[in-house]
Amino acid sequence: MPIIKKKAAIITGAAKRLGRAIALTFASYGYDIVVHYHNSHNEAVFLKYVIEKLYQKKCLIVKADFNNFYSLKDLVEKAFKIMPYSNVLINNASIFHRKTFLETENKDLTCNYNIHVRAPFFLTQYFAKKCQDKGSIVNVIDYGIIKQSSNYYAYMLTKKSFANLTQMSAFELAPRITVSAICPEFIPDDAFLSGSSRDSTLNKVLRKIIDLLDATGQLYFLFK
């Protein structure tokens, strides 16, 4: 009989919205799942139930506040302790608050930086050190990074930095670890409602994320 190689995906911000959709998609492709969440405990527990019962895949849920630097290494350590064969990291966690350039305060910039730059930087580093075989990292950024103005200033500024991180880490880690990015447009809330027909933008994003796993050391930025 052929040997079935185990595979697992670590997905940040996975309890709700796009992160949840990504987790269910990967489970449907045979991946065990590490669900990171911050405040959405009930949603994370229910997602674990769905993944284990519907897809018969192992699921670990891990609470972590990415404003706490030490939570980053702890998340990766817990993931690889339970699933040492983890070979995919999806940096999806994000915050999104409306504040213009003139309204943005230090705490806003600091929090956005912690979530959108520092967290994926060190999660990528820790994942690369732990990954036993070839691995893939997909960063979820934002279509808006092509624009030069935004009413969500700290968010968009740090997402632009996230894009730069993707490029630089891709060259650092190739060819063993591929690093790529998806830059989706806004996806409405009703696209994630149970029982609703999936939004075409959501379907496109999920399909492209799966396609990115076929990358072989090349850098992909997929918009929309």
Automatic annotation (TrEMBL):
<comment type="similarity">
    <text>Belongs to the short-chain dehydrogenases/reductases (SDR) family.</text>
</comment>
<dbReference type="InterPro" id="IPR036291">
    <property type="entry name" value="NAD(P)-bd_dom_sf"/>
</dbReference>
<protein>
    <recommendedName>
        <fullName>SDR family NAD(P)-dependent oxidoreductase</fullName>
    </recommendedName>
</protein>
<dbReference type="Pfam" id="PF00106">
    <property type="entry name" value="adh_short"/>
</dbReference>
<dbReference type="InterPro" id="IPR002347">
    <property type="entry name" value="SDR_fam"/>
</dbReference>
<keyword id="KW-0560">Oxidoreductase</keyword>
<dbReference type="GO" id="GO:0016491">
    <property type="term" value="F:oxidoreductase activity"/>
</dbReference>
